[in-house]
């Protein structure tokens, strides 16, 4: 049985969440979009000094080629639960997919203003994303 590998990509965005840049792929891995989404606000709490006014966490299943490549990697030491990191090229693919997911369902100006009050969650069967105003 194959375990799902949901990864969380962190983006830094401007106030309108229309211009975003890749920050990193969070080290946590999840077995479902729902569990990733549930953890996203806590994970975003670690990204208060990224140089952007808004942080976005995008939970997504990597494309099959990345999933297969990560599955073939093994931990540094047998019996150790090491975090397997994507390569630079895989990171770019995840970043591009994350930015596309955010742009596809970008909320209107009224919803963007709500980021200042509470995080915005968008969840579908294949991805989720959370935008949160950073308050250092």
Topology:
Layout: E1 6-13, E2 20-30, H1 33-44, E3 54-60, H2 64-72, H3 88-104, H4 109-114, E4 120-123, E5 127-133
Antiparallel strand pairs: 1-2, 1-3, 3-5, 4-5
Q: What would the keywords be for this entry?
A:
27% strand, alpha+beta, 32% helix, 136 residues, single chain, 4 helices, five-stranded antiparallel β-sheet
In short:
With 136 residues, the protein is α+β, with helices and mostly antiparallel strands.
Model description:
This protein has 136 residues and is α+β, with helices and mostly antiparallel strands. Helices cover 32% and strands 27% of the residues. The chain has a five-stranded antiparallel beta sheet, sandwiched between helices. Strand 4 and strand 5 form a beta hairpin.
The largest sheet, given as strand count, sense and whether it forms a barrel, is:
5 strands, antiparallel
Task: Give the topology string: H per helix, E per strand.
Answer: EEHEHHHEE
**Mean pLDDT figure:** 74
Give the terminus-to-terminus CA distance.
Answer: 43 Å
* Unreliably modeled segments: 76-80
The helicity comes to 25-40%
The percent range for strand residues is: 25-35%
Number of helices: 4
Cα gyration radius (Å): 15 Å
Strands in their spatial order, largest beta sheet: 2-1-3-5-4
The total beta strand count reads: 5
Structural class: alpha+beta
Shape, please? globular
């Amino acid at each position: 049985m194959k375990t799902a590998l949901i990864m969380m990509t962190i983006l830094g965005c401007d106030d309108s969440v229309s211009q975003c840049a890749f920050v990193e792929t969070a080290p946590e891995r999840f077995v479902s979009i729902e569990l990733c989404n549930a953890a996203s606000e806590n994970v975003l709490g670690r990204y208060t000094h990224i140089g952007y006014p808004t942080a976005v966490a995008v939970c997504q299943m990597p494309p099959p080629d990345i999933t297969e490549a990560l599955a073939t990697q093994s931990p540094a030491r047998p019996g150790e639960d090491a975090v397997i990191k994507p390569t630079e090229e895989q990171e770019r693919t995840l970043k591009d997919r994350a930015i596309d997911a955010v742009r596809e369902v970008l909320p209107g100006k009224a919803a963007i203003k709500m980021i200042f009050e509470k995080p915005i969650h968008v969840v579908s069967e294949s991805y989720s994303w959370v935008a949160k105003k950073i308050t250092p």
